[in-house]
């Protein structure tokens, strides 16, 4: 069953002193294009979060947001004041020597230096497994959304590919009329020639057979039907096949173009135009299939 690349998922988890919410939105894209907005405390886990999202959602333009809501009862974090003072004195001396005024936010940067705040790493390790499960839950929610969207796409594509097959069947009743028209037109053109009495009927029949063979589209009709059957079969596979369906759609389009160029019959060409119209709508839908 096919899946759409459009999806939305949300999951929340409770930790000591806070509630963490993960929100994921997904749109169509040729590859995995991920934008993440992650709180500073989880920045070092950003690569792992990205890996989880890619393995779960494969591809698409994906936006992931992690929001923290404080609820009280926070973890204890110890600040190494001696180390902070040491950093502060050294940095102050550098500013004094250079004659540059030390910014007021310097202390905030010092608090992010290694070993200044103890307990943070323990907190992150404790919270990571909970956060990981919530990210996977949000991804699962997106995947379910994609499946539901894919079900609607599946119905639409099946209907349109079925219509193309139906239109293909409508071509053959015009085949005898088409060949008769071509043969009569050739004879009419020949009659306009001055040496009509010198025409070799056997040679004319040979040339006619050769010409008709060139404009015969029975092979194109067969390949067109086969491509449509393969398209349906691919849709029913259990893996993501959006790109593969796109390639099959291109092959269907090639057969339609050849059929139209060989037709030499207005009714058949009108049918081909209807086929192409349905194929264009299919291609638009395929852009959003995983």
Describe the structure.
- This protein is an alpha+beta fold and 290 residues long.
- The chain folds into 3 domains: 7-74 and 121-144, Ribosomal Protein S5, domain 2; 78-110, no CATH class; 148-286, no CATH class.
- The chain is built from 9 helices and 6 strands, in the order E-E-E-H-E-E-H-H-E-H-H-H-H-H-H.
- It has helices at residues 46-57, 81-98, 106-110, 120-169, 175-191, 201-214, 218-235, 242-263, 266-286; strands at residues 7-15, 18-27, 32-37, 60-70, 78-79, 117-118.
- A 4-stranded mixed β-sheet has the order 1-2-4-3. A two-stranded antiparallel ribbon has the order 5-6.
- Strand 3, helix 1 (46-57) and strand 4 form a beta-alpha-beta unit.
- Helix 1 runs parallel beside helix 4 (120-169), helix 4 (120-169) packs antiparallel against helix 7 and helix 4 (120-169) runs antiparallel to helix 9.
- The protein is elongated and about 115 Å long.
- The model has no long low-confidence stretch (mean pLDDT 85).
């Amino acid at each position: 069953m096919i899946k759409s690349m459009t999806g939305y998922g949300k999951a929340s988890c409770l930790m000591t002193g806070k509630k963490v919410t993960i929100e994921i939105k997904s749109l169509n894209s040729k590859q995995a294009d991920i934008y993440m907005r992650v709180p500073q405390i989880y920045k070092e886990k950003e690569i792992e979060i990205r890996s989880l999202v890619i393995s779960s959602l494969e591809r698409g333009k994906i936006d992931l947001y992690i929001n923290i809501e404080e609820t009280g009862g926070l973890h204890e974090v110890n600040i190494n004041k001696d180390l902070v003072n040491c950093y502060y004195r050294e940095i102050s001396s550098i500013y004094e020597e250079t004659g540059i005024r030390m910014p007021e936010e310097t202390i905030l940067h010092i608090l992010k230096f290694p070993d200044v705040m103890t307990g943070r790493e323990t907190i992150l390790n404790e919270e990571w497994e909970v956060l990981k499960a919530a990210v996977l839950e949000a991804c699962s929610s997106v995947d379910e959304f994609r499946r539901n969207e894919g079900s609607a796409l599946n119905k639409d594509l099946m209907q349109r590919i079925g219509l193309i097959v139906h239109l293909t069947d409508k071509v053959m009743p015009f085949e005898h009329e088409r060949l008769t028209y071509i043969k009569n037109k050739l004879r009419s053109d020949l009659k306009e020639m001055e040496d009509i009495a010198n025409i070799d009927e056997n040679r004319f029949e040979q040339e006619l057979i050769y010409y008709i063979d060139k404009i015969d589209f029975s092979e194109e009709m067969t390949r067109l039907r086969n491509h449509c059957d393969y398209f349906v079969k691919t849709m029913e596979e259990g893996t993501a096949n959006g790109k593969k369906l796109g390639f099959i759609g291109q092959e269907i389009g090639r057969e339609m173009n050849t059929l139209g160029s060989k037709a030499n019959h207005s009714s058949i060409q009108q049918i081909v135009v209807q086929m192409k119209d349905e194929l264009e709508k299919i291609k638009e839908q395929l852009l959003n299939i995983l």
